[in-house]
Amino acid sequence: MTTTPGPTVRRRRLGAELRRLREASELTVEQAGTHIHRSGPTISRMETGQFRFIARNVADLLDLYGVTDSDQRQALLALAKETRTPAWWHSYGDIVPRWFQVYIGLEAEASTISTFHALLVHGLLQTADYARAVIRAASPDMPLADVDRAVELRLTRQKILATDPPTTLWMIVDQAVIHRHVGGPQVMKAQLERLIDASEQPGTTIQVVPFAAGAHAGMISSFTLLGFADTGGAPETAYLEAPTGSLYLEKPTEVRRYEHWMNQLRGTALDPAGSRQIIHTAREELS
Fold it and tell me: Are residues 48 and 168 in the same domain?
């Protein structure tokens, strides 16, 4: 099973450019939609990279927006064609909601991932048994075969940490995460061992915000910052997840706000060595 990056980032790049052109033309999403016989919400989904592009639609929108430069048109139409290449996670579409497929695509193509979680270990560092316990708790009616496929998907996502060079991951968790016995003591013991091992790998940093820190920036919400190679790895998208959907923030002012909170958490949390020790202690308590 390959984890070759899919078309998600290219789709979002094209969508962002179409949005910029529409706004420069002072047109609404409804006006753009009418031009290509689509709805306003469909145009919004195209502009946020959540809709598969059709080259004819893109060409018609470029006409509407007055784009006549041949090189610019060819580049955008070529990008539209590339976005239709199926991603490796496409076969899991029946068990993964569309909004999370967008995240998987961004994650797969990110060069840096910085994340804070107050309740659980991030999916990129979960063991199979921990992931299974989380999935079954969230979806108790899911058929066991689908649970197995969901676990398989989660583990396949983790391959980005084994590439050369690996995706840079900086995970911060509240101390409660390492003390909550997800799946039972033995499952949790193995999960803590996974975190200890991961913390010693190049490109992965793990920090724990101790109970003694009191109130901290992460109490607002769990969140993830994604950076990409073409931006030098700088955070470009902030991702927030809810049980029935997700929120992607891309405006620089919004992303900077979450980057500021992430930096606050890095200062509040124990350093990597201290974090490794507190995880090791929690693991020993389960022996």
Answer: no
